Amino acid sequence: MITLLYFARLRESFGLASEQAELPADVTDVGSLTEWLRQRGSIWQEELAPGKPVRAAVNQDMADLDTPVRDKDEVAFFPPVTGG
Amino acid sequence: MITLLYFARLRESFGLASEQAELPADVTDVGSLTEWLRQRGSIWQEELAPGKPVRAAVNQDMADLDTPVRDKDEVAFFPPVTGG
Amino acid sequence: MTVHVQTEDFDIGAEILKLRQGNTGIGAIASFVGLVRDLNKDTAVTEMVLEHYPGMTEKALIEIVEEAKRRWNLINALVIHRIGPLRPTDQIVLVVTSSAHRHEAFAACEFIMDYLKTRAPFWKKEQTAEGAHWVDARESDETAAQRWIAASN
Amino acid sequence: MTVHVQTEDFDIGAEILKLRQGNTGIGAIASFVGLVRDLNKDTAVTEMVLEHYPGMTEKALIEIVEEAKRRWNLINALVIHRIGPLRPTDQIVLVVTSSAHRHEAFAACEFIMDYLKTRAPFWKKEQTAEGAHWVDARESDETAAQRWIAASN
User: Fold this and answer.
1) Angle at A49 between CA A45 and CA A53, to 5 degrees
2) Measuring CA to CA, which residue among B28, B16, C59, B72 is closest to residue A74?
3) Splitting chain B (84 residues) into consecutive groups of 10 residues, what average pLDDT does each group show?
4) Torsion-angle region of residue B30: left (phi > 0), alpha (psi -120 to 50) or beta?
5) C145/D88 Cα distance (integer angstroms)
6) Are C33 and D28 inside 8 Å of each other by CB?
7) A47 contact residues in C (CB cutoff 8 A)
8) Of B40, C6, C123, C148, which is most buried, counting CB atoms within 10 Å of its CB?
9) For chain D, what is the domain count?
10) ipTM of the predicted structure?
């Protein structure tokens, strides 16, 4: 089980702020997790399309596609940040 | 007649903050004015010696040795500035 | 070193006084305040909402300040970033750095702002007469952050 | 654009509020405060006296701020410099710049400080346990000012 968090435009598009998910065995990193989420439907495909400016964090550290995802991790997806 | 002003270390060394001076005809710029002041004595020679870090301003603008000095001008001599 | 994420406004004068307290070696204090402007890309903004990632935001800000302290001789540093609804002319962010000398205070303050803009999880949603929209990240902010990677300071 | 040379202390919070008043286009305010440190080249300073050249000092500060406004898109700028006797931890100088964007506010604020340090007629005399002495100008301040001549901003 992992915790998934969505922020800003992604939270609104998915209509989802957080969820607990049971991952299939072949989801081992941010890249394969993104691929798995894309299979949920057209809005997921669109927002998480390759080349879209989406960022991910694993356990509150900025991550890239190769960052491992393990059981009990907190994984967040969000647009590029715009604070300050 | 010109007004001469001295600041900081120069004011203390010369024991003089300001004076009105009648210049000889051959004093036409900051360089010749400095040369003329050096003839006043050893402390003037020392403080205004060539190569000493002394700055001059003519009519409240930073000047160099070639800056003209004319009747009624205000000429100031002082060390490099250390504000801020 | 202090990092705050809060809905409340802040008082730069009071914050600088607190930061100075008890340290007689400070010669330089650089600070930055970011404000909500009423114009963003030619459409009047009536309100904006700042969303953040609780937990990660504070962690990211602390890491940015720690990195600044590794790069420059800072005596102290403070970051306050507001969240929630904000209106034009409201204060958004405060960064204060103190050091013995001015160049280090200036450089660290600008570095913290540049990194905060590209690495701290905040998102702005603007409300205009034509509706609400999420603010896009700017290329110029990424460029500003990148130059600290090339340069040592 | 405001320039003050004064013996009185200043309140950075109040000055920034005044500078912001009535302008809703300000997105960035950079500021700098210089303080008297208790240590200068390893000798404890008990007091310092700041001398200036009345008339020329104000003129030089105005020219420096005008030059900053030519180089960057500033909305407003303020310089306050104190004169007379000052003690460790006292505030000496305040520079505040406001702009639509942060880089211009930061650059102009640092530029004004670097130019003030080398072009505004102020002189510091420090009082230490071993007596009084005039502070020497620093090579590093001249170097800091020179880099603005090489660079366009």
Assistant:
1) 135
2) C59
3) 98 98 96 97 96 96 97 98 96
4) alpha
5) 36
6) yes
7) none
8) C123
9) 1
10) 0.94
Note whether B touches A: 3 CB pairs or more under 8 A. no
* pTM of the model as a whole: 0.95
What is residue C39's predicted lDDT score, i.e. its pLDDT? 67
In this structure, what are the phi and psi dihedrals at residue C46, rounded to the nearest 5 degrees? -95, -30
Per-residue pLDDT for A36 more than 70?
yes
- Contact criterion met (CB below 8 Å) for C48 and C88: no
D88, two tokens = 């460790």
CB nearest B79 (choices: D55, D59, D123): D123
D92 vs B57, B60, B84: nearest CB: B84
* C22: CATH: 3.90.1170.40
Chain A to chain C, count of Cβ pairs less than 8 Å apart? 73
**D92 contacts in B (CB within 8 Å)?**
83-84
| Amino acid in position D1 | M
* pLDDT tens-digit series, residues A53-77: 999 999 999 999 999 999 999 999 9
Q: What is the pLDDT of residues C51-102, one digit of tens each?
A: 999 999 999 999 999 999 999 999 999 999 999 999 999 999 999 999 999 9
In tens, the pLDDT along C104-139 reads 999 999 999 999 999 999 999 999 888 999 999 998
The answer to whether A27 and A36 are in contact (CB under 8 A) is yes
A contact test, residue of C52, C123, C125, C142 with most A CBs within 10 A: C123
Q: How far is D49 from chain B (nearest CA, A)?
A: 10
- Buried (b) or exposed (e) across D68-98, using 16+ Cβ within 10 A? bbebbebbbbbbbbbbeebebbebbbbbbbb
Of residues D55, D120, D121, nearest to B7 (C-beta): D121
Question: How far is the C-alpha of D100 from the C-alpha of C42, rounded, in Å?
Answer: 13
Q: Among A8, A60, A82, whose Cβ lies nearest the Cβ of C56?
A: A60
Distance from the Cα of B10 to chain D's closest Cα (Å) equals 10
pLDDT at D80: 98
Kindly state whether C143 is in contact with chain A, defined as any CB-CB distance less than 8 angstroms: no
Write down the mean pLDDT value for chain A. Answer: 97
Whether D153 has a pLDDT exceeding 60, the answer reads no
